[in-house]
Amino acid sequence: MKAGRCSVALRHRGGVSSEWPYWKQQRVCAFREESRVPLIALPSRTQPPLTMAADDVDVFAHEEKRNLELGGHVGFDSLPDQLVSKSVAQGFCFNILCVGETGIGKSTLMNTLFNTTFENEEASHYQREVQLRPQTYDLQESNVKLKLTIVHTVGFGDQINKGESHKPILEYIDTQFERYLEEELKIKRSLFNCHDTRIHICLYFIAPTGHSLKSLDLVTMKKLDSKVNIIPVIAKADTVSKSELDKLKIKIMSELVSNGVQIYQFPTEDEAVAEINTSMNTHLPFAVVGSVEEVKVGNKMVKARLYPWGSVQVENENHCDFVKLREMLLRVNMEDLREQTHARHYELYRRCKLEEMGFKDTDPDSHSFSLQDTYEAKRKEFLVDLQHKEEEMRQMFVSKVKETEAELKEKEKELHERFEQLKRMHQEEKKNLEEKRRELEEEMNAFNRRKVAAETLMGQALQGSSQTPFKKDKDKKN
């Protein structure tokens, strides 16, 4: 150990341990007598280096810590300012998942929430399956930079069979966790520079039907509550009367509790925000209205939705809960949402994933955990499993080859029988043709004979008829 370095204090409640080396006992006793400062002089080059065994560390594990007063200003009180400066320079990221039926007002609410217009394609109601469409934007307010990712669930609730609608959402969330875990497990990693795409908040849009939740809503939120922070919102709240809206909120919360759905509760541990968060927890789910149109109300322009009977002001808390949602989501609890995502949901995924890979924490009574041993054990297990699979594939291949050979032999046999059958048919037809040709030749010969006989008779008849007139003329001359 080099000179100038502070060594670890060696203290023992029951005195100096007799099992320690002699030189270590002398130094501990010397420092106890001269000063009660828990620092030990460094050993000289001729002395053995100071080392601590596991038993020595256990001795001081329960030692009480002492509070010391500083004699003057040191400077580490600027650490929070350093962290703030570094965080502001690095920027922040925030990822929002919008889950709701097509046309329920997800895009409009996002535009209203961040006071801008995001590019978003209009979705149709004829999607065969649910598709997740993430879009990332770089925003800046004052000197704070925010990388915002909004993920829309295109086609959610539009299918006839809605039983599988939640699966693409779960797969997307797990994929983002998997990417972050892969970055963590890299040998050369850069967690501060990588884009964190883990979902920090899920805004679940509930249709303002006034009849409580649909089965699709309950199933989806139940599947998502262990993966992401969920804040339910009642969309298009201006379509429901105030009394019906209050009843709908009570009914929704009652159904969520009775079905064991865990939604995000605003934290009340911090005294600075405990009062407002406690109050806002009683207003869940938020009834919101979104609009980017500026309407003149009185002497000022406000965001509102204009109707023939009047206007609904978005930022008027008597009209809707939009301001409450914005305050809770962005101004008060954004960092807590990020922390909950990392400390609760991601840690749960990470723990389950590492347990599947064979990693485990060490218990006080068990041996120390060795990453190398775990790797070797998993490698052996993988090789054994690979050999079993290779053997199974080989046997399957052999069986398939035998089946194929049997099928080919059967087909060859069938083809051979068919060939023999066709050959016999061909020989029979050939034999029949030969007989018919012979009969035809015999008929032709008989016909030719009859023809010759007929021609002979005809020639004789003609000759006889030509001689008869000649005899008659000769008789007349006589």
Task: Tell me what the structure shows.
The protein has 478 residues and is α/β, with parallel strands linked by helices. 49% of the residues lie in helices and 12% in strands. It contains 11 helices and 9 strands. The chain has helices at residues 22-34, 54-59, 79-90, 106-113, 167-184, 215-224, 242-258, 271-281, 322-332, 334-356, 371-477; strands at residues 92-99, 131-141, 144-154, 201-206, 230-234, 286-287, 294-297, 300-307, 310-313. The strands form 2 sheets. Strands 2-3-1-4-5-6 form a 6-stranded mixed β-sheet, sandwiched between helices. A 3-stranded antiparallel β-sheet has the order 7-8-9, with no helix packed on it. Strand 4 (201-206), helix 6 and strand 5 (230-234) form a beta-alpha-beta unit. The longest helix is centred in the last third of the chain and has 107 residues, at 371-477. The chain starts with 21 loop residues before the first helix and ends with a helix. Residues 1-54 have low confidence and may be disordered.
Shape: elongated
- Helix content bin: 40-55%
**Mean pLDDT, as a whole number?**
81
Taking the alpha carbons of the first and last residues, their distance comes to 178 Å
Strand order of the biggest β-sheet: 2-3-1-4-5-6
Main beta-sheet strand count, sense and barrel state = 6 strands, mixed
| Residue windows where pLDDT falls under 50 for at least 5 positions | 1-54
Class computed from helices, strands and strand pairing: alpha/beta
User: Helix tally?
Assistant: 11
H and E string = HHHEHEEHEHEHHEEEEHHH
